[in-house]
Amino acid sequence: MNSGELWAKRFESLESMITMQELCYPAINLAAKLQERLLDNLSSWTDYIQKGYETFCEGWASIFNSLYMTDAARQVRRLSDIHRRMKEVAEWQMRAANDLIKYSTEHIEPMAMSLPHDTIWEDEHANLILCYPDDKKELGVSDEPTVIYVAFTGRSAVLADYNSRFEPEKESSLARAAIKNGLGPVMIAEFKSAHDGILDHGAREYEQTQHNISEFIRKEFGMPPHKIGICQQGYFVTWGLAAEPDDANTLVRVASSFDPTVGDNYLKRMVGNISVEDVDDFLEASGNRMPARWMAFFWRIFEDPAYFSGGKNINMYRKIIKGTYNPWRDITFRSLMDKDCDRDIPGGLYRDLVSFFKYGLEARVIKDKDFSRIRIPVCEYTGNDPISPPETAVEIFKHIGTPEEKQMHLHNKSVGHLGLYSSPKSNTDRYDKDNCWPVIFRWMVQNNRFK
């Protein structure tokens, strides 16, 4: 069995194992919650015993003191104190262990959008979703059309409306932030899951979809949109603009490499020992697609090779005993990372992606592109991101034809890859007022080429 086929079999086995585990989670979680109640009752009972023991010891200490036996009195009080501490430690350990079981088996729904929205355009590859400022479904601003292209990593449009349903006050939704800062209409382009008719489609076909979206928006709103490309969509949008340079008003690339072969990064390491033949064998074994759930597994394993063999629970338990575990934050993240993953990548596009990761600008899919044709305003937004570090992103400025005064690079040190488009540390100006989305949104409006 070759390495590509072996990886496919491993992912298939891992998926089966996790599916079986999750079938058991409801019963285990219920038992943990019942155990929590029992521990509350046990705590009350042991408190009663402890108080009785302390009263008993204090009585003997008083007798010893009256007999001038102060050392004996001290020893009795020390025994009482040791007994109390042992009780507290035992209860704390039981609660920590039970919390681990409870939170690790919690039922988690996939993250969902909460912004009012409609699908206003679609083709075989993508949906274009229009977001409204409120439930009245009125457009509000209509002369700054903006499209957020969410990463095609198994995720849905919720990537641009992150955590909006759970905690809207956290201001972690990029689409909400864009609306709040004067852009509109704000739209989200999400790619559909691979289906039989498009399994061989690659970057060229997806570039045509992007062009069609721009043409639709030009017809509806009188100008091409501001384009925001998240992660790999930053690549696709840029490649498409090299062919159709008038398809965007401005371009913002966030957490997105231009040349992943520069420096050291996760993408470069990921494909370091992978050959084209390995990819072909993998896709043959997986039905000519990269399953979304396998992508989610891969990133978990890449960060922690032992994640599914105990690493997840060990890390969670460490945080619980340190008092740093935030259940709500963890469940929110897992609702995206592990549950919002139902969009498989077609085999053709996956081949193009791996080729780009491995060969950068020399990859077959973009080797013939003339990026100097891109002359619109371009912004690069980077962070403390091991997937797309700054040096891989700012390479774009060496190749495009955009005048220097229309180029901008912001670097937010306080956020990582996901945080660049889903954290209040980037979506608001409360943390880094010079390197945040409000600055970028103002720049987009100021550089609108059709006003």
Description:
The chain is α/β, with parallel strands linked by helices. It folds into 2 domains: 16-104; 117-290 and 331-446, Rossmann fold (3-Layer(aba) Sandwich). 50% of the residues lie in helices and 10% in strands. The chain contains 15 helices and 10 strands. It has an 8-stranded mixed beta sheet, sandwiched between helices. A two-stranded antiparallel ribbon has the order 7-8. The termini are far apart.
Which parts are unreliable, with pLDDT below 50 for 5 consecutive residues or more? none
The CATH class of the largest domain, by name, is Alpha Beta
Count of DSSP strands: 10
Write down the domain tally: 2
Rounded to an integer in angstroms, the radius of gyration calculated over CA atoms is 28 Å
Distance from N terminus to C terminus (CA atoms, Å) equals: 60 Å
CATH superfamily of the largest domain: Alpha/Beta hydrolase fold, catalytic domain
Strand order of the largest sheet: 1-2-4-3-5-6-9-10
Q: What fold name stands as the CATH topology of the largest domain? A: Rossmann fold
Task: Based on the coordinates given, report the CATH architecture of the largest domain.
Answer: 3-Layer(aba) Sandwich
- Number of helical runs? 15
Strand content: 5-15%
- Name the average pLDDT: 87
H/E element string? HHEEEHEHEHEHHEHHHEHEHEHHH
Helix content: 40-55%
